[in-house]
Amino acid sequence: MKFWFAGVMTPTPAHSSQTNQQSDDLPAETTTNTKRHTLPLVARIPTAKIFEDDWRSRTSPKHPCPVILIHGTGETKACWAGLGTELRELGYAVFAPDFGNRSTDAVAESAAQVGAYIDAVLTVTGARKAILVGHSQGGILARYWMHFLGGSSKVHQLICLSVPNHGTQPGGFLPDIALTPHVQRRIHQLITAWFGPSGFEMLSDSPLIDALNATGDTIPGIHYSCITTRSDAIITPVESCFLDGRHSNNIYVQDTAQHMLVMHEDMPYNKHVRALVVAEIENCPPLDPEIPEAEVPVPFSLRAKRALRVLRG
Fold first, then answer.
1. What is the pLDDT of residues 157-167, one digit of tens each?
2. Where in the sequence does UniProt note compositional bias of the Polar residues kind (predicted)?
3. Which residue of 68, 107, 157, 217 has the fewest CB atoms within a 10 Å radius of its CB?
4. d(Cα 248, Cα 225) in Å, to the nearest integer?
5. Angle of CA points 302, 305, 311, to nearest 5°
6. First vs last C-alpha separation in the chain
């Protein structure tokens, strides 16, 4: 028996022996904790693809902002292999971090790691601002860093792929009649076991979601795009992905592909979604030119003293 939740197919305890055997295939950063059974289940599932950073990448006058791709819960940077390669072929400098035990740590911890990574990318590339693309919890981490960790001045554009910007309902995939107190307790136990501390922070009534939107969904000067799918069974209601604000472009996948079935976990991989992301990046207003700080006027008396010193040699 298997469950689909938060974009990941997770093994039940009956498959624990298989999971243990697979732990040797995990990235080195998670192997130790996995063998000790201290990681949530979604952080123990091996990945099939690889996407590596190239720290020689530099921005250009045509593409002055590096693109940083932030994965969701239980994922790794490998989920960006398709989109990252396509953006690189268009001339963008593209980077993607792994962090937070596959994004199962508390949001504050993962967001701090992501923020440090973004700072490193900006330093290496010499860029002033970045374009961020986040899937699911990845978008929450980007917004947390922007709102609470001083990152807003370093972001030109944020693209959210099925991000629970206004939270999701626990057991949103179940009808209300099935949400008995016993079922709700079981759901909370499963959230803890599968997703770790970050699982509860994605819920619509969590203090973190309330704080993120307390002063408005968006930050002036940043361009937002929110792309979601009507067939998302994880983020419920699906409209909770959308952000209110003059500079937020809210899109359903089905707006341009009416009958396309795209699940929550498909968003980073789906070819049509990738094309939407590329279009949002390509059509974003250009980065404003850097305005030099105005010089502080020097009082006439001080200028006169300096002139006298020059004349006297």
1. 999 999 999 99
2. 13-32
3. 217
4. 5
5. 145
6. 90
